[in-house]
Amino acid sequence: MKKIVVVLLCLLVAKAALAQKDSLSFDEHNKYIYYKVVEQPGLTADTFQNRALYFLKINYPKNKIDQAGAPATITGTGKFLVLTGLSVAKHVAGEINYTFTIGYKDQKYRYWLTGFVYSPYKTDRYGNSVPEQGVEIPLESGLSKLEKSELNSCLEQSGTYSIKFGNKLKEYMVRVSATKPTEAKKKVISTKDW
Amino acid sequence: MKKKFLLLLLAASTYSFASKAQDTIKTTGDAPLVLYGSVDTYYKDDFSGHSNIGTSFASDNNSVSIGMVDLGLKKTVGNASFVGELSFGPRGQEQSIPNSGYYHIQNLYVSYAFSPKFSATAGYMSTFIGYEVISPTGNFNYSTSYLFTAGPFQNAGLKFTYAFSDKVSLMAGIFNDDWNAYTSSHDVSTFGAQLTVTPVKNWTAYLNVASGPSSGTIFDLTTAYQISSAFKLGLNGADFTPAHGGGGYAGVALYPQYAVSKAVTLGLRGEYFDEKAVTGGTSANVTEATLTANIKSGPLTFIPEVRLNTFGKLDYSSFTNSNGAPTKSASQFVLAAVYAF
Questions:
Q1: B contacts of A23 (beta carbons < 8 Å)
Q2: Does some domain include residue A2?
Q3: Contact assignment for B125 to A80 by CB distance below 8 Å
Q4: What pLDDT sits at residue B54?
Q5: Which chain A residues touch B226 with a CB distance below 8 Å?
Q6: ipTM > 0.95, yes or no
Q7: So what's the pLDDT on residue A134?
Q8: Using CA atoms, how far apart are residues B3 and B315, in angstroms rounded to an integer?
Q9: CB-CB contact of B332 with B305 (8 Å)
Q10: Range of the domain at A124
Q11: Which residue, of A5, B144, B162, B327, has the fewest CB within 10 Å?
């Protein structure tokens, strides 16, 4: 019985990994989107705002943030690298730029990542991986510019990234304090007095 | 039997999970050791029946020949990084300089980023001059231009790069007295600089200069503009004056390219190259037009191309026709395959 439970658990985990590509849906503008609404009773909109900003500052310091848009909303842009190959042959295939939105009101918040645009990389004359100039491919129209396997990899890695983004945001949203827990003071042993 | 089946299922599930977990995205921290490079091979047919066009590489006529295997390793830890890239095979050895007989170093340098805007690099590096490079993955056309063959391939030295903004950066450095040499002949006396300007999105221009008492002086403009998602226009112009004895060269090459589908891009290289007269001599010029297609299938690129070269005068033409008689023009067909990893 125990073995059956373990097997089922393994299958569930494997299925979750495979489902990362499918975690993206289409929005009303026919763009890929990763969208979640999270109920968090007992917390106010202000608290969500502070914690979301702290989450972005700590985890995504390079993301550009814009708070001048719709009220009770933080929007911004970010990017992540797309990898290809295995083991030592693994290298950067490109980068995906995206936009994110975190909205909040009392008791709940929502967030979404969308506008995924892939920029392939090339190896320059010095051996560096750099973006190919002027090549920007929205994932929605990826099939017209990319091989199917390339597009699938981009979608899968966008899904993985979005899930990680959401999980990390959730961690920060449920924290009692939006400050980093201080490390326990190191115990110092004096060898002078004995 | 049931137990074995369950264990098999468990193994399969775990393997599936492990395979997917390798795709975890790393956005921060140190990059792993990366292996990269290429392999290339080609067939050339000069329409005269013998080799005529003497630019670098693709030299063997009526032969399935090899280019090189290019192997690079690179790694970044914190602000420090290195690149080591060696090639083996005719393109990377006897057809490139310097030729050790066993290998050819494409890049071998260490780099340190003092800040996101300011970095220093020391070692043996691909030259900052010109549009084309030795590695076939860095070029659209398989055969190379006269400007490439005449110009530097690599420079050894110490250079500093500062980015003033996203649109302007400057590289300045001091390099060994001779181009394409692992060690200097006498000293480290060539000054080199590159001003990089991005006037508008998708247009980058590099204004380059290298000057030294031994290596001479070269001014170079290299620029590329991705005008639309399908159309790209590149330009290279250079003027070289040797340190002693007169001569040198000047030339310009234009590189329009158009993507007709996601797998096929067509490109033309039109070039005018002028060998300046040495004291008491005459100058010579040659024009060339190369029509090339890049047909991509994953990491493999097939490169068919037709090239036509014409000297300005028969007097100084080095071409001969199928009968061996001097002629102003020569043409060739090349089919190459380049695998990049």
A1: none
A2: no
A3: no
A4: 85
A5: 133-135
A6: no
A7: 87
A8: 87
A9: no
A10: 22-173
A11: A5
